């Protein structure tokens, strides 16, 4: 299946400008072109964009995303470094989850305290 840039943007949840930017900075290989010279994205391209979106959502810096993308493009022999990038990012995500869990615990404590105070005030 082939998708025009507007369709790829809609399916990926990214803007057309973001797709062009990702191509310009090397996160995405330039997609094939149709007979009219327009970008033609494939399902594989959309899968890669979905993964990039996940990496970005985890807070991975663009610099690291670029390194990962360049290693991916080089292919065989880069697996160890690609894996290490992902392991490091997973560690960062787990640390952020733990920090957010602590924040959630504090919020829950305060919410429960206010609930108790309100009950005592109406009793």
UniProtKB/TrEMBL annotation:
Kindly give the Pfam families that the UniProt entry links to this protein.
MerR_1 (PF13411)
Which molecular-function annotation in GO is an example for this chain? DNA binding
List UniProt keywords, sorted A-Z: DNA-binding
Domain HTH merR-type spans what residues?
A: 1-71
Q: Which InterPro entries match?
A: DNA-bd_dom_put_sf, MerR-type_HTH_dom, MerR_fam
- Superkingdom of the organism of origin: Bacteria
Identify this protein by name.
Answer: DNA-binding transcriptional MerR regulator
